[in-house]
Every structure is written in structure tokens, then in C-alpha cells.
Specification:
By secondary structure, the chain is mostly helical. It has a single domain, classed as Arp2/3 complex 21 kDa subunit ARPC3 (Orthogonal Bundle). 61% of the residues lie in helices and 0% in strands. The protein is built from five helices and no strands. Helix 2 runs antiparallel to helix 3 and helix 3 runs antiparallel to helix 5. The two termini are 28 Å apart.
């Protein structure tokens, strides 16, 4: 995720709408891009040792919530500081804007947990060894 962000900031058009470059830093959606790095670390931390379906689902849902929290707060800040926020734009309105994609993201969290659990069945070597000896 860090490489993705750095490639985009370097100017490659990899962000939504084929955007890229340093100007992306002040875009309302950059908070979501930045949050991908934090969410990847957080979800990896949660699932590193406990790879049950319940943990995969919990991690996916918490990761989605963290993505929304960081991204929506950045979006609100960007509209208030760098862009002409629409008349009457409030913090509540920023969160209301995020309601339409939320059901899709919750469903995708379930799909990710199901696929992840199935992948762990197919590739059991991805499971942590129960007899690992610390180095």
C-alpha cells in the first residue's frame, strides 16, 4: 500500500479518476489512500496469529471502520481547508455522504473473510506453526 501511494504521489495515474502527483495530498479522498497503509498494518496485526473465520471477519469489519474514520475525517478537513465546501457543509453531512457505499463495503468485508478462510484451507502453510520455536 505504501508503494501504491508513493507511485501515485510521484505522478503515476493510479488513483481514482487516473489521478496522481503531489497535488493529490490535498484532495478530499487522499485520506482514504493514506488509511490503506494503516488499515493493512492493523488488519495484519489482528490476523497474524489468529486466522479463524471470526477473526478474519472482525479484522475486515474493523479495517473498514478505520478506513471510513480516517478517510471521512480527511475529506471533511480537505473540504473545509482547501476546497470550497458546499453551503451548509457539516461534519455530519460528510458522514451522510459515506452512507451509500457503506453497505457494499460491509458485504465485501464478509466476502473477504469467506475467501480468506477458504484460502487458509487450501493453503494450510499460511497458518502459523503451532510448534514454532522463537529465534
Amino acid at each position: 500500500m505504501t508503494v501504491y501511494m508513493l507511485i501515485g504521489l510521484a505522478g503515476m495515474p493510479v488513483f481514482a479518476g487516473w489521478g496522481g502527483g503531489l497535488g493529490t495530498l490535498i484532495r478530499p479522498t487522499f485520506g482514504f489512500i493514506l488509511s490503506y497503509i494503516i488499515v493493512a498494518w492493523f488488519v495484519g496485526l489482528l490476523t497474524e496469529k489468529h486466522k479463524s473465520f471470526a477473526m478474519l471477519l472482525t479484522a475486515a469489519l474493523l479495517g473498514t471502520a478505520l478506513n471510513y474514520l480516517l478517510g471521512t475525517n480527511w475529506m471533511y478537513m480537505a473540504y473545509k481547508l482547501w476546497f470550497n465546501a458546499p453551503e451548509g457543509f457539516t461534519y455530519t453531512m460528510a458522514w451522510v455522504w459515506m452512507l451509500p457505499p457503506m453497505p457494499k463495503d460491509i458485504i465485501l468485508s464478509f466476502v473477504a473473510a469467506v475467501v480468506g478462510a477458504k484460502m487458509l484451507q487450501i493453503f494450510p502453510q499460511a497458518q502459523p506453526s503451532k510448534t514454532s520455536v522463537p529465534a
